[in-house]
Amino acid sequence: MAEPEDPPAFMSALVTEHFALQSAASTTVSESSSRVTIYLSSLSSALVAIGFASSAHRALAALAFTVLPTVFVLGWFTIVRLVETSVTNLTSLRRIEQIRRYYASLGPRGPGYFPPDVPSGQHGVHYGRWSYLYTMASMVVVVNAVLGGAIIALVCALALDLALPVATVVGLAGGLGLLGLGLEFERRRVGPAVARRDQGQN
Question: Is residue 175 within 8 Å of residue 146, measured between CB atoms?
């Protein structure tokens, strides 16, 4: 017995959903780029201001202990949002691929136009277990970890008056800890989305 054809209204709704998901995926990429630009611009401006004040110890301390922590907090806000947009993007792509599989089943020539081995939106990118290491969020995690380590080193050197080698080692240890914390947060949020996406392709 032949399966009944889907009503035209269903196909219209499916195409609309496809378009909406593509728009959502594109919006996440645009928002991520804007947030990264804002963060890096803020960091660059802060470093320029500190460079001008580096000749005066009190001015350097005042800027370092006010501006840099503010940029550091902004970095964490940026990381959280970048991770969320990554999850949204992966979810949208998975749903688009589900729609494409339906398109491929509409007729005998469907698989030729919607091949299952070329998922929509990947553009040659393979999403795997370690893909999160190459995202914009990971880039900001690294930069913000360096900034956090520098803040810790400055606190040790300027406020606690520790020797420069000791302050450097403490700052390095703190930066590595912040790097691990940021990457682990991203892995816990993005990893399940990648796993669900892979399961949807099977």
Answer: yes
Residue 191 clears pLDDT 70, i.e. is over it: yes
The two tokens of residue 143 are: 């930069």
Q: 67-78 burial, b if ≥16 CB within 10 A, otherwise e?
A: bbeebbebbbeb
Domain boundaries of the chain, sorted by first residue:
8-201
Instruction: Quote the crossing angle between the two packed helices 57-64 and 67-104, to the nearest 10°.
Output: 30
Q: How far apart are CA 101 and CA 119, in angstroms?
A: 9
Q: Taking the CB of residue 87, how many other CB atoms lie within 10 A of it?
A: 19
Reduce the DSSP state of residue 120 to 3 states and report it. coil
Mean pLDDT, residues 180-196 taken together: 87
Q: For 4, phi and psi rounded to 5 degrees?
A: -65, 145
Please write down the long-range contacts of 21-26, taking CB distance under 8 Å and 24 or more positions apart.
21/92, 21/93, 21/95, 21/96, 21/99, 22/92, 22/96, 22/121, 24/88, 24/92, 25/88, 25/89, 25/92, 25/93, 25/96, 25/121
Q: And the tokens for 3? A: 């399966």
Q: Is 160 exposed, middle or buried (0-12, 13-18, 19+ CB in 10 A)?
A: exposed
The more confident residue out of 139 and 62 is 139
For residue range 54-74, what is the model confidence (pLDDT) as tens digits? 787 787 888 888 999 999 999
pLDDT number for residue 201: 53
